Amino acid sequence: MNRFFLNIMKKYEENEFASFRLENGILHIVYKENVNLFLGDAMKVVAQRLTFQQGKVYPILCNIRGLREISKEARGYFAVEGTLLINALAFVSKTPLSTIFTKIYINDISPFRIKMFTDETSALEFLHPFAQAVSR
Amino acid sequence: MDKLENSHRLENLYQQLFAMLNGDYFQQIERTNSKDHLEALSVLVNMITEQIRGSIMRLGFSRPFYSYTVVTQMLFFLDRSRNIIKMNNGVKKLLHYEENDILGLTFKKLLYTDSHKVWDQGVKGIISGPERETTLQLSFLTNYGLLFPAQCKVLYFPDEQYLNQKIIVTSIKVSLQREAPEDILNLDLQKTHGGRTQIPKNKKGHKYILNTLDIEMIHSIKKYIVAHLNESIPDILDLAHTMGTNEYKLKNGFKELYGMTVFQFIKDQRLRKAHTLIQYTNKKIGYIARSVGFKQGNHLAREFKKRYGYTPTELRLLSSHLNYYYI
To answer: Which residue of A has its CA nearest to B288?
Structure first.
């Protein structure tokens, strides 16, 4: 079949749960305020992220300050399918609640470098070398 | 911490911990929109409750004298205005209300706000039909301020003579039922009329007991596997020795903790990742197979078809139409 992919290089997308922004080779994911994530929602987030990345691997800066609840099933999905096409992950955590969510996530996952930060500048410094490895 | 609102939240934490102390792992702490330490603690306690509940359930599969039993927890009859007109004793026991507090009350008022939308949509669906029953995951607010999550069956009766436009809401619970060895003995004696008594054998053999160090070690092995999924995993013996344990402990302990063998676990993880990559990227299937740890594309195809009932190519064709723009 004569079908070709249109490489639409989007730099920004969002859905009801989070926004995805590509800047200097780093994917910034920011969860929206008071988001509750169940399995179906986690699947939507991962699907949108992977489609947005168009098969490329990126370092990710994830801000989960807005996350209110995440179910066990959603955590299980993020721990497997949610780790795809990521070479490093930095969480920016500024509240006790987001710190707990981050620690639980880090405890379960180790296929790439993950680190928690309280400020975005340090997080970007950590991710920067990984962004060199991939270019869009 | 001393604010009135916080003292209510602290009280909920205490209530939940006391409920757990009494062996009740079916309640949860009401969540707020705060992001402070109390909220983080509430999340942790809720997660621990869920974990213990899961562990207790799993115990029932392999312990010889325990089995599952399904019991109706709560039963509500609602009139056409969705007010409660009848209920069973389970409601009083589980939600800690008196009958007078509940009769005549709009059912929705018993629900936690997070469940309001689910309830409204569910009821709207069964009233408009054609399906007249649905299953909803609802959270009830107990009189003690804790949440009681329950899977509820909701049935609507549009034309029945005695249940005209009424709704029945019922929740069920699966719990452990202990049967003493002597009970089994008696049953068998009755069955065999004095013949040779046979105590059912535990087909799985004796249960493997894990201590804290074993659990930590097996968890590390799982992390190692997850981190090296795209590589050839060393054989079980090497893996066990690398982690400072023996093959027997690793094999049995892993299955005990994660419900599948090491190789089933590896295959499961690889297939799940392959499925997602096929669905949401345009990478070649052979490349995906190798990137998740299958040596060849046809090995992936064979296992994939066995697990999902369709081939990677079929999934790719379907997903391509849904996810990408073509010219």
So the answer is: A55
